[in-house]
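User: Assemble these into one structure.

Assistant: Restating your components, then the assembled model:
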Amino acid sequence: DTGVSQDPRHKITKRGQNVTFRCDPISEHNRLYWYRQTLGQGPEFLTYFQNEAQLEKSRLLSDRFSAERPKGSFSTLEIQRTEQGDSAMYLCASGNRGSTEAFFGQGTRLTVV
Amino acid sequence: KQEVTQIPAALSVPEGENLVLNCSFTDSAIYNLQWFRQDPGKGLTSLLLIQSSQREQTSGRLNASLDKSSGRSTLYIAASQPGDSATYLCAVLFTGNQFYFGTGTSLTVIP
């Protein structure tokens, strides 16, 4: 296993379009996180899954954002009606049961034009 | 409000120097603190994890310490190398499930 995998690595989209990102966590990790990072800032929490249950959502996750983890393995993050302010790096992380350590993927860089 | 602060925002040192990066947090009730490295345009690489019951962790040339009572952690890098140039992020797990990140320290090691 090579770690947390995110796809695509880069996405350029026009304002108003919908985009979907995928995250494959480390095998058998039951915890999964989504974070957003803008230039020069630290990552900001978006949402947290334990297995397939979405247990926590940030106020940053507006109604245009939705995340799923249907089978407790991979996760998707969808942004509807994208805005220029959505341009950021979207990071996914996973963690194993019994540990609080988080392992991050390489991120998806979104540019909304 | 739970906040994490990193000082300095940027640091430039000559190769071979030992250096210390600082992280402070507002609430002493933490589960753990994790130090990450981030290269430009890339994701985060975990460097060290310190549990709340621990005082320090070491990995190679890196040593991280934790003082919960004062709300501080330091990352010590010995004998710095140009390859250490990156942004270093501190993340704190308070109660709940989300990590709170500082804004990072951008390190440049000059050959």
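The radius of gyration of chain A is 13 Å.
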